[in-house]
Amino acid sequence: MTPTTRTASPPDIFDITTETLIIGAGACGLVAALSATETGQQVLLIEADPVPSGSTALSAGLIPAAGTKIQRAAGIDDSATLFASDIQAKAQGENDPALVDLMTSGAAEVIDWLAEVHGLPFSVVTNFDYPGHSRHRMHGLPARSGAELIDALRTACEAKGIDIICDRRADVLFHQDGEVYGVAVNRPDGGVETIGCKRMILACNGFGGNRALVSRHMPEIADGLWFGHDGNRGEAVLWAEEIGAQTQHLGAYQGHGNVAHPHGILITWAVITEGGVQVNRRGGRFWNEAQGYSEAARAVLSQPGGEAFAIFDHRIAGIARQFEDFKRAETAGAVRTSDTLEGLAETLGLPPDRLATTLAEIPLEGTDHFGRRFGMTPLAPPYCGVRVTGALFHTQGGLQVNADAQVLRTDGTPFDTLYAGGGAACGVSGKGDSGYLSGNGLLSAVVLGRRAGIVSPR
Q1: Residues 6+ apart with CB under 8 A from 398
Q2: Over 60: is that where the pLDDT of 416 sits?
Q3: Within a 10 A sphere around the Cβ of 190, how many other Cβ atoms?
């Protein structure tokens, strides 16, 4: 094995053996662990961090699903077919239809199962619309926080007696005769342990924290703020190269163009969808913000200084306060307020006359020259503003899987022993950044985690 090789033949004897080994304790891994335990499998879940968190903990923790019992109770008429149509429309048909159908048809079952069996108190976000979703289908816990979701899933795993071993980063994949047999993991003390398994589920997310891979596959965002989890180093993709596994859409990613700068706090896109706008240092708008927050990253980074300013008002701020991140941004002083546009411009360092002209040009109804349609409620004092920049949140391309979340070889046949979900697998966000529909990351995490978990070892 050369120093750059990440795979090796399995040892004669493993330090630890288990039936189902799960790599990564984010939403995907925790859902997979609950599902596998439910079917009677012996499960071991390993996590590189001191405590489970992952990219999920950095998100708003919202999972899109169509046709849930929670939706029906709220009077929302939705279907997997409509959800699939929304996903494909956002990605301009670039996704594998079978994978889209798998995601959209499986999401409601996961939400209902987590709510009824494990007691997660989901509700649907109904007080604003997410771009591209034709129904209210974003399910979240009360605080609308990814950390809250991770804590709830971890608590559910602990209640089932599932073994979660932290501070163990998987390094070398043991592979022989076309199948996977385990991993070598690094311990905090510098030691190495080998873990053997009958099957393995890769829930170790994507490669956003590996700047070399980002530069190779998505150079347009390479200089953007990395807002994801540093543990996302791309082991799944690197292993795939050595064992002959298929990958797809490695240039796909979720960006975000509304991260408070320099505070590094996510500002919910609700401040835009409810009638706010983005302006550059000159006080002028520069694009159609209704396209979505993922492509906003490139739009914002292309402006002078790689920054912009989200402009909204007190009414919109009231809606945004349902998210913990927004309240944290207010506490940190990232959100500036003023009773006048002149005062807001002064505190943000913008030209007052130009900012006033920009807002005056917003139509009360109809479509503006960027192609964005506005409602009838104009911005009104007190006004609010935040300096923001563009960021990379997580990658959306990855390993190709089938309907059971089994990883596919380059010849199209499935591995019997290797499964993947979440950011380790190819998602349904098309080939780039503009195909990302809100919640696609957690959609892939919970649906593929559920599918991979319930399949018994062969």
Answers
A1: 206, 236, 237, 247, 248, 249, 250, 420, 423, 424, 425, 426, 427
A2: yes
A3: 6
The pair of structure tokens assigned to 409 is 């070889």
Q: For residue 167, count CB atoms less than 10 angstroms from its CB and return exposed for 0-12, middle for 13-18, buried for 19 or more.
A: middle
How far is the C-alpha of 445 from the C-alpha of 110, rounded, in Å? 11
Domains 7-252+396-454 and 253-392 share a fold: no
Is residue 412 scored above 60 in pLDDT? yes
**8-state DSSP, 125:** -
Please state the domain extents for the chain.
7-252+396-454, 253-392
Q: What are the tens digits of pLDDT across the range 260-276? A: 999 999 999 999 999 99
Distance CA 446, CA 44 (A): 18
Question: What DSSP line would sit under 418-442, residue for residue?
Answer: EEE-GGGB--SS-SSSTT--TTHHH
CATH architecture of 253-392: Alpha-Beta Complex (3.90)
pLDDT tens per residue across span 80-91:
999 999 999 999
Amino acid at 451: R
For domain 7-252+396-454, the CATH architecture is 3-Layer(bba) Sandwich (3.50)
Q: Is the pLDDT score of 223 beyond 90? A: no
pTM for this model (two decimals)? 0.90
